Amino acid sequence: MLERCRWAFVALFLAWAATVHAQLDLDRLQRLVEQGRMEQAYQLARDHRAELEGRTRFDFYYGVAAIEAGHVAEGVFALERVLMRQPGHDRARLELARGYFLLGEDPRAREAFRTVMAQAPPESVKATIDRFLEAIRRRSDRYETVATAYVDLAGGWDSNVNSATEADSVALFDGLFELNLSDSSQAREDAFWQLSGGAEVRRPLSPTTGVFGAFDFRVRGHAEESDFNTGRFSYQGGWEWRGDFSRLRLAGRLQPFLLDGDVYQNRYGASAEYRYAFAETTAGTAFARMDWIDYPDQGIRDSRLWTAGLGGDHLFRGPYRPALSLKAFGGGEVADADSDRARAIAERDIYGARLSLGFILHPEWRVDLGGQVRRSDYDAEHQLFLEAREETYYRAEMGVDWQPTRHWRVGPQVRYTANDANLTVYDYERTRAWLRLRYEHF
């Protein structure tokens, strides 16, 4: 009897010692993972998998270490066991979603990420999930049809709805005559509302090629100056090729522009854009575009406009993640009519540059700054002013966006434009300020 008790005590002691040893190794595994020493954590977990596999705590840290150490499938299986026992383990679901993403199982990754997002995680986790969802969306372009859309509602104040001069009169025939301008030919201010929206569908033809179609519009109305209500509608379609680091897009476009309900201008165009990613955060762009411009009631202004240029984008690391974009362009407009009058109105050389800079102040707050300079030198002397038109167009803008959810954003926008022209009638300044509400579906 005494001998039997002794062996029973030895068995209990060995079982207790094994439990303590396993617990100590499990604590060590957790510390290694939390310290980022994933390869060591993975090897430790492999050594104790036989006796600890099936414990929720072990499976979680084993799964995280395996994914980080490059053994993604093993990690996914371990984390799936955790969620089978504890479906509410959001951290395990987040790590599992990342594992699915690395395995290329985008539908399962998207579902897991969205499940975690629905639990209102911390802002830093939301930002991480948004980056993964955006990467999944971009990657899905290669093998499934993707549709995106947006609607934008805005209201604000415009200091110069008709982009007109503030001068009371202009000199004609080199100062020989003075022409008094009517109220409608001078700057008019007014409140405005604006509704815009659009949609794009991209369909892959192969892993590297696809076709796309897009439509967007912008309708603007004014409280009092209804003669200057406008509408712009754009229809676009084309073909796209994508490599590992580059993209080529060829497109055709139709764009009517309405003034006070009537078609004021039609544009028919074609464009080509090539983009190359030099690094994860840096890309360059080359582009070219040709437009045929038709004025139904002013044939003398009909023309062909071409532009081409180069650009670059860079995303800086560190606080606020500033994103910088710069483009330089040049081109020309050629009048359809072969006359000095047509060349004075519609024929010019163009060159300029655009700059934009964005900051993420907080996962929900973004600030965007932008500017543009464009120089135009017209080809012939204006018959009324006896001087060829020369002008420099300036634009500066700032926007602040608050994005409380993934699809909604709201914020104020301000834009200042000025046309510095040698002919007074084309010289103006304009300031617009508005508040917008935007919904994006992707």
Question: Which descriptors apply to this entry?
Answer:
442 residues; alpha+beta; two-stranded antiparallel ribbon; 9 helices; 16 strands; 47% strand
- What is the average per-residue confidence, as pLDDT, rounded to a whole number? 87
Write the element-wise H/E pattern from the N-terminal end onward.
HHHHHHHHEEEEEEEEEEEHEEEEE
Structural class: alpha+beta
Shape: elongated
Q: Give the quaternary arrangement of the chains.
A: single chain
Strand percentage lies at over 45%
Strands side by side in the biggest sheet: 1-4-5-6-7-8-9-10-11-12-13-14-15-16
Give unreliable regions as ranges.
Answer: 5-22
Q: What about the largest sheet?
A: 14 strands, antiparallel, barrel
> Based on DSSP secondary structure assignment, what is the total number of beta strands?
16
The total of helices stands at: 9
From the alpha-carbon coordinates, what is the Rg to the nearest angstrom? 31 Å
Secondary structure: helix percent? 25-40%
First CA to last CA: what distance? Answer: 75 Å
Tell me what the structure shows.
With 442 residues, the chain is of the alpha+beta class. Helix content is 28%, strand content 47%. The protein contains nine helices and 16 strands. A 14-stranded antiparallel β-barrel has the order 1-4-5-6-7-8-9-10-11-12-13-14-15-16. The chain has a two-stranded antiparallel ribbon with strand order 2-3. A hairpin with an 8-residue loop joins strand 9 and strand 10. Helix 2 crosses helix 4, helix 4 runs parallel beside helix 6 and helix 7 packs antiparallel against helix 8.
